[in-house]
Write a structure and sequence with these properties.
- The protein is an alpha+beta fold.
- It has two helices and ten strands; from the N terminus they run αβββββββαβββ.
- It has two domains: 30 residues; 156 residues, Sandwich (Immunoglobulin-like), CATH 2.60.40.
- The strands form two sheets. Strands 3, 4, 5, 6, 8, 9 and 10 form a seven-stranded antiparallel beta sheet that branches.
- It binds 2-acetamido-2-deoxy-beta-D-glucopyranose (NAG) (2 copies).
- InterPro entries: LEA_2, NDR1-like.
- One of its GO terms (biological process) is defense response to other organism.
- It is found in: Membrane.
Length: 190
Amino acid sequence: MNKRRICYIVTGIISILFIIFITVLILSQTVFKPKYPILQTLSSTVDGVSTHVSPPLDVQLNFTLTLQMLVKNPNVADFAYKTVENSVFYRDRLVGNLTLPSSSLPAKGSVILLCPLVLQIDKFVADLGDVIQDILQRKIVIETKANMPGIITVLGIFKVHVKTVSHCKLELSFPTMAIERQVCELDAKL
Ligand SMILES: *[C@@H]1O[C@H](CO)[C@@H](O)[C@H](O)[C@H]1NC(C)=O
Ligand SMILES: *[C@@H]1O[C@H](CO)[C@@H](O)[C@H](O)[C@H]1NC(C)=O
């Protein structure tokens, strides 16, 4: 082989590698570009309500809040979440929590998770006077926070860490604990 021929072959190989590189780069920025997974609270239900109120100091507020959550993977790539940590707050105090185990979703996959939170609101509240005030106004406001850290695996090689958080604010009416209003928002970080 003469020098010129070797030169052609080397140039050819470099061009092919370059084209493959550009193609992978473009695909990873378009079709395979990681998108936020969706974590949405579809609905919430209350059951097992058991209350006992005799002011000023004896207030018991027990119920189970079950969140129905949708996890959706919009990616053309696998998504694995480590956990779904659910916390419930009443007046900024943690009153209940539940951590769901890890799982993974295939490309474009989705799943509905049920998250039953057993709450005993009075137990964790600093000032029972606040609870009594809410009871007199027949309105209890609680907030839920679901935290879903996970990894998107693009083309089976690139791993992208994502964190999705969903907040909801629920207004319950006392004494039935029926859910009057539910406002949720989604927050995700790549
Ligand atoms: C609320 O739950 C606690 C713990 O399970 C229990 O001790 C208490 O009696 C319950 N209160 C009512 C009113 O059901
Ligand atoms: C949160 O979960 C842990 C572990 O299950 C439990 O020990 C703790 O009491 C929970 N906190 C509340 C406020 O429910």
